[in-house]
Design a protein that fits this description.
The chain is α+β, with helices and mostly antiparallel strands and 332 residues long. It has 3 domains: 6-97, Muramoyl-pentapeptide Carboxypeptidase, domain 1 (Orthogonal Bundle); 107-255, L,D-transpeptidase catalytic domain-like (Beta Barrel), CATH 2.40.440.10; 260-331. It is 41% helix and 18% strand. The chain is built from 8 helices and 13 strands. It has helices spanning 6-10, 30-51, 62-76, 87-97, 223-232, 244-249, 257-312, 320-331, and strands at 18-19, 25-26, 107-108, 116-121, 126-131, 134-144, 153-162, 187-191, 200-202, 213-215, 219-221, 238-242, 252-253. The chain has an 8-stranded mixed β-barrel. It has a two-stranded antiparallel ribbon with strand order 1-2. The longest helix has 56 residues, at 257-312. Residues 7-26 have low confidence and may be disordered.
Length: 332
């Protein structure tokens, strides 16, 4: 699969260089052109994310909306969620623009239920909602600022609250539910670890924290995402929380889309080599057939030449002298 970069797909610029007196190429606007190119590529990246459905008007701050689009895109393709549009995100987005299929690559051995359940991948900062062994949706999250703060294990949802109050966690003043300054946001889904009131999945009052390790142990989501999830799941919904490797041990393999791209590349490379091999074999066969035809022609020509030679120069015909001597011998 030939993958073009977004800068090639969306930005084509022709530069007419100016020659100095000694023939050296001079470009007085190089810096300006570079800035314009970067701005154009950035605009096209955002437009592509909008077209693919990742860009939402979550806030009035467009930089936050753009970052949310990036982390949603990363989570859907099982990339590490960090909000940075780096080489991996570029590779995947370019592949999609070039026609690669949008698909989930998760493989589930034994789901805990045929109904809805969730995993939280601490390595990649992704919450995945499943129904049986099928992915329903993926969400970017934030987790504990230290590796051990967010608990690992197989839990269930034990309570759900709209506009939960925050008690301050012993480090700050409590905040009433519904306040825009509430660290829990506007939704809470507690898990059966620490009694259901200590650890849970909730919203946030710091949107830039999503896609980072920032919490005291809870799992934070984009406020609009957690509101959507809140309405989908019910009490007793299973929630498996672990690292990428721990989830694999439990039979949940959340394969990166990058691996899928590589598989396609290798398959196409193999197919190309096979086609080349077939074509080369056909060429060799044609050469052999041509050589055989040429050999047959040469054989026929040689036989004809030898036949003509025998007609032109018959064997055992006596000379005149030999003939006269033969006649004289008979007479005597």
């Amino acid at each position: 699969m030939k993958v073009l970069s977004l800068s090639v797909i969306f930005f084509i610029m022709t530069i007419n260089p100016v020659l100095s007196m000694d023939g050296e190429v001079v470009n007085n606007n190089a810096s300006e052109i570079k800035v314009q190119k970067e701005e154009t590529t950035e605009i096209n990246k955002v437009e592509t994310l909008k077209t693919l459905g990742y860009f939402h008007e979550d806030t009035k701050q467009q930089d936050i909306n753009k970052r949310n689009a990036i982390i949603r895109f990363q989570s859907e393709h099982n990339l590490t969620v960090d909000g940075i549009y780096g080489p991996q995100s570029e590779t995947v987005l370019s592949a999609l623009v070039n026609g690669s299929e949008r698909r989930y690559l998760d493989v589930i051995d034994q789901p805990p239920t045929k109904g809805k359940w969730m995993t939280i991948n601490k390595t990649k900062r992704i919450l995945t909602l499943y129904e049986g062994d099928k992915v329903m949706k993926k969400y970017p999250v934030a987790q504990g600022k230290e590796p051990g703060l967010t608990p690992e294990g197989k839990f269930t949802i034990v309570n759900k609250l709209v506009n939960p109050g925050w008690g301050g966690a012993g480090i700050a003043q409590p905040v009433k539910g519904g306040s825009p300054n509430n660290p829990l946001g506007y939704r809470w889904m507690g898990i059966n670890h620490g009694g259901g009131g200590s650890y849970g999945i909730h919203g946030n009052n710091n949107p830039r924290s999503i896609g980072t390790n920032a919490s005291l142990g809870c799992v934070r989501m984009i406020n609009s995402d957690v509101a959507e999830l809140f309405d989908i799941i019910s009490l007793k919904t299973p929630v498996w929380i672990g690292t990428h490797e721990k989830l694999k041990e439990w039979g949940v393999d959340q394969k990166s889309y990058l691996g899928y791209i590589e598989e396609i590349r290798l398959a196409e490379e193999k197919a190309t080599k096979e086609k080349q091999a077939i074509k080369q074999a056909e060429i060799e066969k044609a050469k052999q057939e041509e050589a055989m035809k040429q050999a047959e022609i040469e054989k026929v020509l040689q036989e004809k030449e030898e036949s003509n030679k025998q007609i032109e120069e018959p064997e055992n015909i006596p000379t005149i002298k030999e003939y006269l001597e033969y006649i004289n011998g008979i007479q005597h």
